[in-house]
Write a structure and sequence with these properties.
single chain, alpha/beta, 6-stranded parallel beta sheet, two-stranded antiparallel ribbon, 8 strands, 48% helix, elongated, binds S-adenosyl-L-homocysteine
């Protein structure tokens, strides 16, 4: 009796697996491949998306794991580092020409050759940030430091306008740890803008609003990154500042190499990390993929977005289920009629 019922259902609705699986709402959905149920199609789509993002995900996870391992090694290593201290002194000079290609110590037994490139983080925006944004900037600076410290090819790093609430935070909550940092210099004042055109041309202020696009990072240049977290409140802030100081500007070549969802304004630490990765691999695509979190890369679906999509699909399904039930009732009647 039960067997018969199953056989009959299989014959009448071959593509349906259960009553909760409904065919498409005819308005919004693409047609299903022949012989494929809606559920199988959804599974297939999901798998494809997952496979497409697999490489990026793995790369990102691997990088994070590596970072954690090195961070741990660094915490364990508390040996003073003379070569870095010497460099700190050298870096207190002029903004241009301070870059050096020294051999520096990265971990306990690890040496690296520093690129003669300077990354300067301009923190002259203290008043423009909320307390929370200020806190976030302090974490980003810490991150920049540790990324540079463990970079395969580190650079000279400078923090200028290190004052106000930022300094207060580093001095109190962060327990003056920065005073032990190596290979980095802190200056309470703004960077000096050289008078001569030639010297000024060695400086590039990075800004997503610039008309120029970076192609390479060059030796003996100083790349300024704005030390500000503003959630997009201040448009062209750094661009205008650089223009008024007659300093060249450039944006990262994001759209040339990677698709990211939303705005192309990155955080200070991501910009610094991308530059460090470019110096290591000499390849923008690799640098972007390693640093920009997969969730920002186009095509990625967060767990929340996924839940939202699934629930709206379910809603649509139950709507079309209702429609189908009506259709099924009609068609069953026809079949029954035919059988009887
Ligand atoms: N509203 C700020 C944005 C701050 S983002 C502004 O007007 O600059 C922090 C800093 O990261 C920026 O100041 C800039 O130096 C750098 N940055 C962010 N996205 C960038 C991009 N796409 N290209 C180049 N630099 C970028």
């Amino acid at each position: 009796m039960t067997g018969e019922a199953v056989d009959r259902r299989d014959l009448t609705t071959p593509e349906r697996e259960s009553s909760t699986v409904a065919p498409t709402s005819r308005l919004h959905r693409p047609p299903l491949p022949e012989g494929m149920s809606r559920n199988a199609w959804k599974r297939d789509q999901k798998k494809q998306k997952w496979l497409e993002q697999k490489d990026a995900r793995n790369k990102y996870k691997k990088e994070k794991k590596k970072q954690k391992k090195i961070e741990k090694m660094e915490r364990q290593s508390s040996q003073p580092d003379r070569s870095d201290d010497e460099t700190n002194e050298k870096m207190e000079g002029n903004i241009v020409g301070a870059g050096s290609a020294d051999v520096v110590k990265r971990g306990r037994n690890d040496m690296a050759v520093r690129a003669p490139i300077t990354i300067l983080i301009d923190c002259g925006f203290d008043d423009l940030m909320t307390e929370k944004e200020n806190l976030s900037l302090s974490s980003q600076i810490t991150r920049c430091y540790s990324e540079n410290r463990r970079a395969v090819v580190p650079v000279n790093m400078r923090i200028t306008s290190f004052n106000g609430r930022l300094l207060e935070r580093f001095d109190s909550a962060l327990k003056q740890q920065y005073k032990h940092w190596k290979g980095i210099s802190f200056s309470p004042t703004e960077y000096e803008v050289p008078e001569s055109d030639e010297e000024r041309s060695q400086i590039i202020y990075l800004s997503s609003d610039s008309d120029e696009t970076l192609t390479v990072l060059e030796d003996n240049k100083v790349y300024i990154v704005g030390g500000i977290v503003d959630k997009g409140r201040y448009k062209s802030l750094c661009l205008n500042k650089a223009n008024s100081q007659k300093i060249k500007t450039a944006k990262l070549p994001i759209s040339e190499f990677i698709k990211i969802s939303g705005r192309k304004v990155l955080t200070t630490n991501h910009v610094v990390e991308i530059m460090l990765k470019w110096i290591e691999f000499r390849d923008w695509k690799t640098a972007f993929e390693l640093v920009i979190p997969p969730r920002k890369q186009e095509g990625f679906e967060s767990a929340r977005q996924k839940r939202k999509r699934q629930s709206s699909l379910q809603k649509e399904d139950s709507r079309s289920d209702a429609e189908d039930e009506h259709d099924d009732e009609t068609s069953t009647e026809v079949v029954d009629e035919g059988c009887s």
